[in-house]
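[job 4471] stage=fold_predict status=RUNNING
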Amino acid sequence: MNKILSFFDLHQGEEKKETVLENVVANISLRGSNAWILACAIVIASVGLNVNSTAVIIGAMLISPLMGPIVGAGFALGTFDFPLLKKSIKNLLIATVISLVASFIYFLLSPFKKAICTAGTKQQRVYCHL
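[job 4471] inference complete, writing structure tokens
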């Protein structure tokens, strides 16, 4: 019976809070290469929006380094570490500014200027599948 209970013990392999805190704090910052990766991910997402490609938008989300500040904010709220929460929110705001600037520049220079409405074609497809 003890063997079965030890199998479900949640404390085995558990990291110490200090180790987790160090890893979270190290991944919060959006400076240097993370800022450039974010800008490139936003440009890729903008291309996906321009050509109406869901797969490209999802791919851009996968390479985006936004999880660091989001995890930092969640960890800070869970541990009531308000200086860490302040740092995480500041980095999320920096990421928002980087994202808006990158997408503004892309759509300013984009060769695709005409908006394409696909609502009618999607309704016909749904109607045909019924």
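[job 4471] summary: The CA atoms of residues 95 and 104 lie 14 Å apart.
[job 4471] exit 0
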